[in-house]
């Protein structure tokens, strides 16, 4: 996530320089052919070009809208994970009780059980985050939105086992990462521990089901993330938005020529800056949507999952009355991951 | 689902070659009549044509939007089925308990009960998938979106009984497929087994109702799929989008003639490429919406149900501690089903 | 619901012939006055007319969008009724149990109770369907969307008591139809029977509340239908969409005259076909929205409630292990009701 | 709510006569200055005016969309109140039972308890309705949408105590209306009675919580109404829609002059009818949104709360087996309140 | 929140005077160069400029829509907090009971417990409000939407501890504000007190879980506020809306020159007022969206959280039968905070 109100030129530059150079050369070439080589036939009327422009603006607008919805839904899901994590913590802390239990447990034994459930939860959100960012959606595709992030050392993805070592003992991690979906399996383990607690009388049937319902909630949010990750914006829509935009940019200068030539002779050269401005606007619209559609890609427009996970960790460990809380994650070069 | 960022020409070609050929011939004919036969009366002003263009772009945009919503909702439903399946599994594994039961069951007997409930669930999602893809919405309608898929051997639909044989004994399958809606009946059987478990004291009333609520959730998701399948995008909206687009394409070249003739004499022939580009854009917009509206059709834009079902199978069998897990489904020719 | 991909001319004709005739005569008259009577003052510039056109296209687009949302919501509600009906059936079949009851009931007595609850439910959805279709929203309004349906004998609405006789004894029906809202009262009776079952120990408190929650769900869906029925698309929006469209159609030919006259003398007569095409597109857009806004009107764009009710009946009676199941409802003249 | 398909002229007139008169005079004045005073400089090109027109149409469209959403949400809330009221009634009738109670109550005592809970609920929806309509959102603002309603005697708002006297004893009303929010307090009283019933063993814990959940639902719906009432469509959006529309109307005739003058000399006078039509369409669009944004204002576009409350009363008293049911509320002058 | 129907000039002025001055000078300069310096080459055709205008209007419209959605969602969340607070109050008042308790508590002891839970809740919503308004989203960014509010003494933000002192004892506040998120911790304390009540038999398991569910609801709403606060409208979308608007404004006067020059010589000076009107409309559209996107910023478009908190306080203390209720918050200079 980019965090300042204005996007500085240094961020903009890698996204646009290639296209701008292309627009300048393309329109320069056409003006040269028209004016110097006297290829007057290059000029075509502007009105049909404007018709394409309107249709393309519609279509790109639709794509932008949908990309934004995907991004916003992704952020909403991680908001829900935050809420549910806090709820999980107060439930774990206040539902487990020796009231109806035949066993007698010391306070520190009880506290250890609670800590286990909460730390395994922190491991869960960590695993989910790493899994989501690990595999790119498009294997061979690479763009400036990724490069900007990859250039920053601190954003290098750690391996899952290293990230988990803060919350789980090593032997558990080793068996865990052999499962096809570690995050899913961590929830499975939470459920197994809840069953134990119930069988030992530390949870009433009623409280047991209520806690299990929280696991269902986590599965729902996890599944929602995986759905966004594994079902990119449908290609039939996204690809043609790209094609239409470039078709429009391709025919645009011929239309501009005519209009500019109407005003005066050397005015045709104004086609160059004007074409570049219009083409840049349409191309930028396209790119804005394109780089926002996948919010879990280790790219500049990612949902800041690392920061969210840290905030959850701070809140939950504060509830456990721990005092050596970690610091909040800060933006680096105005990028928060 | 198409899985690469760019749609290659080999996929595009079957969708567009007929239309492009038509556009070329139609505009060529008109130019010929105008320029060679001197039928100057063919030229009409472009402005009213542009008015139609704007209205049509609106209307097609609305159709595309709605088709996308249908597709996205379909994917969301299958995401929910994934989530609920995982939840079903942890509940089945951890709710059924001999704690309050008069009966004594061995661990392996208990495990068998759990496996029954989970395997019947895998049979359920398989049955749902096959049912959704079996019957086409439009009996006599056939388009390239289907042909592309049908050409690939691996995507041939198996019969329901063959698909189910991996999860259910043969005799059960035989009686099952005689019911009007096998998927619905499988849930009915789950419910019956839950009742047995409750009556034998293996489920408390409270856990019983909570598991039954999961069956309600599956009925909700199944019904949502069937609703999308049996209620296509309303014809009054979809059909006129098609009619308006072609009316616009029909009148477009006459308007272009006038504009092109303004620039110079032989420029009228530029009507051919220009008309083809504009017509192709509008026609493609129409087709994109049209091929996306039905997401359970065994066509290229299908929700990848086969892959999703396999992922659920892997997750659930992993939870059952099975180790010979099947592989994930891979895309063939960049198509994931 | 219309069920084929293409709308045939026989369906289109009653909707459009009057308007097309009007468009032809109106534009013919204007051309005649301009060209033969030499009323040259009739020609006005096209550009302001195009401005109206854009604004109207926006407004009509908004109306179409909203009408579609109403239709889709209506279909979604009936989808939910289907899902809830199936859930109701498995709950009725598996919740009612003699486990905790002092009474001893034979299996067939139990089965009769279950059948009562399920058959009364089938009566409920039938009553809801008939109630929704009985009274038109606009008393004196009549359009081709209704005529097309009314011409087909099989779509004639039966009286409520006749329809209910398949599911309820006659004496119950008689007292039922005296209530102000029979469907609401049927749910009231379901609730009363559930209380009896609870008081006789055939339902635990917990299962009782869960079943009652299903009745709440049915009231929610019923209320949603009644809301759509009794609150048509607000007149302030719908009516002006109609007025603006016709104002646009009214001024359109004068603007076209000017444009056509620019090209050549007798070209003004091209105003007739061109005006007719543009006017037809705008008028058709308006009509599409207008005929779709009320989905429970016994008209061609109705949600196919009869078919949905039949499907529910088949599923539920199959669950009761009945074997003489009725057939699915088929479309007649491509219309499914 | 206006209830006929076509809005008659008598309703339209008060909304539009002032504006139409203004449009006519304004454009007449401009034409007079241009044609008679020869102020030719008044004519400016139309194209930039059209650009404003498109932008304004977008903006007004957005406002209309949002206003409609507010209106539709308001109607949806009152639909939910209807549904929840019916559910409240069947729960009150069938949950309260002497089964587990030490007390013995006669049937008529039980019935009185049920009647109390249902009549207090009818008082609640009445109080909510009156509260919503009592205070206008804009103290000093008054428009035809209100005048049309205020002219009709039957729509005069009664005071809250008079309306409540049909459902509550006088002494209760007196203490009730002293509270800051009577509707909120009525729910408080329902909750207190539920506690009494539970403490007297007439409600199991489980049924108690389920009934209390219905009170939560009513608070949710009430709060949703109050939110719409107290948070009008944000001024920054609504006000500029009004300003932009009138700016467009202000500059429009100068642009039309040029276009009309192109055709012929006296054609400039056609500016008057044309300007009036375009200005009327844009102004009407603006007004349609503006009069629909507040659905609880005692104005012509109100959600028909009086009719809905009456329908709930009929349904609930029918469930209580009462026979002297009131009549449904009828529209007066095609307005249903 | 601004509270009158029309926005007065005094509010508008600080937002627009700089831009209007800039527009006037810029266009004056261009006209001067064209007309006096005879730089005729400055005039370029208007049509391509109009194409940019349409695309920009689309894009800004999208931004406005999204900003409005954020604002409306924020208001909706605080509506839900109101509803849930009322529900919390009736539950606290009527769920806690000595019915099943071994302890005997006097009525005033019980009442004190209830008051504690309700006052701590009032502290919670206060803490949430102060936290949301404390830290700005953009550290160094400042605009008139904030200045208008900051000029009013009564809107100065108090420190959290001072605000909380009305509801909590001082020692509790001191320990509270040391936690990383005081609002989150207050809910933690509510949960701990609920556990105590359950362990002392003052809450049945069932009522305990139901009250805990309300805490989950509060965490959900709190998290939703924090999500809107910490995830501003994505920069890639918002920033380019700003850039495109100003690019359009930048090229607009050159296009207007040509059109105005067509009409007559000195008409070029009409570029100044016309340009200013069009530029002002587009710029205002942009600003409206920009100042509405962050609804918790202590700015003029804030959700009126102070007023909502006060209303909740009045309702809840009225339910506690307190009589010295505070007054509702009034708007100052038509601004309600």
Biggest sheet overview of chain A: none
Shape of chain A: elongated
Name the assembly state.
homopentamer
How much of the sequence of chain A is in beta strands? Answer: under 5%
Averaged pLDDT of chain A, please? 90
- How many helices of chain A does DSSP assign? 11
The secondary structure category of chain A is mainly alpha
Q: Which residue ranges of chain A are poorly predicted, with pLDDT under 50 across at least 5 consecutive positions?
A: none
Domain count of chain A, please report it. 1
Distance between the termini of chain A: 6 Å
Fill in the keyword field for this structure.
homopentamer, 337 residues, mainly alpha, 11 helices, 69% helix, YneE/VCCN1/2-like (chains A, B, C, D, E), ion transport (chains A, B, C, D, E), membrane (chains A, B, C, D, E), transmembrane helix (chains A, B, C, D, E)
Task: Describe, in plain words, how this protein is organized in 3D.
5 copies of one chain form a homopentamer. In chain A, helix 2 packs antiparallel against helix 9 (about 235-265). The longest helix of chain A is centred in the first third of the chain and has 49 residues, at about 45-95. Helix content of chain A is about 70%, strand content about 0%. The relative contact order of chain A is 0.20. The first copy, chain A, has 11 helices and no strands. Chain A has about 325 residues and is mainly α. The radius of gyration of chain A is 28 Å and the shape is elongated. Chains A and E meet through helix 2, helix 8, helix 9, helix 10 and helix 11 of A and helix 2, helix 7, helix 8 and helix 9 of E.
């Amino acid at each position: 996530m980019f965090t300042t109100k204005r996007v500085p030129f240094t961020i903009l530059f890698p996204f646009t320089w290639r296209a701008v150079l292309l627009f300048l050369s393309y329109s320069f070439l056409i003006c040269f052919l028209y004016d110097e080589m006297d290829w007057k036939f290059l000029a075509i009327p502007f009105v049909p070009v404007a018709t394409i422009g309107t249709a393309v603006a519609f279509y790109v607008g639709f794509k932008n809208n949908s990309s934004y919805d995907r991004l916003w839904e992704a952020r909403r899901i991680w908001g829900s994970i935050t809420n549910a994590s806090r709820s999980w913590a107060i439930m774990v802390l206040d539902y487990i009780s020796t009231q109806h239990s035949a066993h007698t447990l010391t306070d520190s034994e009880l506290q250890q059980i609670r800590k286990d459930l909460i730390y395994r939860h922190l491991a869960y959100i960590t695993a989910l985050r790493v899994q989501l960012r690990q595999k790119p959606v498009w294997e061979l595709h690479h763009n400036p939105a990724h490069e900007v992030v990859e250039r920053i050392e601190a954003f290098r993805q750690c391996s899952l086992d290293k990230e988990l070592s803060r919350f789980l003992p090593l032997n558990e991690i080793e068996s865990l990462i052999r499962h096809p979906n570690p995050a899913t399996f961590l929830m499975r383990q939470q459920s197994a521990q809840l069953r134990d607690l119930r069988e030992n009388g530390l949870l009433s049937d009623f409280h047991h089901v209520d806690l299990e319902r929280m696991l269902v909630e986590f599965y729902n949010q996890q599944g929602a993330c995986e759905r966004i990750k594994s079902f990119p914006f449908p290609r039939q829509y996204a690809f043609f938005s790209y094609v239409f935009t470039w078709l429009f940019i391709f025919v645009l200068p011929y239309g501009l020529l005519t209009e500019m030539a109407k005003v005066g002779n050397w005015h045709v050269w104004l086609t160059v800056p004007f074409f570049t401005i219009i083409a840049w606007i349409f191309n930028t619209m396209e790119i804005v949507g394109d780089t926002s559609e996948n919010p879990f890609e280790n790219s500049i427009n990612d949902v800041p999952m690392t920061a969210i996970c840290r905030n959850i960790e701070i809140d939950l460990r504060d509830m456990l009355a721990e005092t050596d809380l970690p610091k909040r994650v800060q933006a680096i070069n105005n990028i928060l991951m």
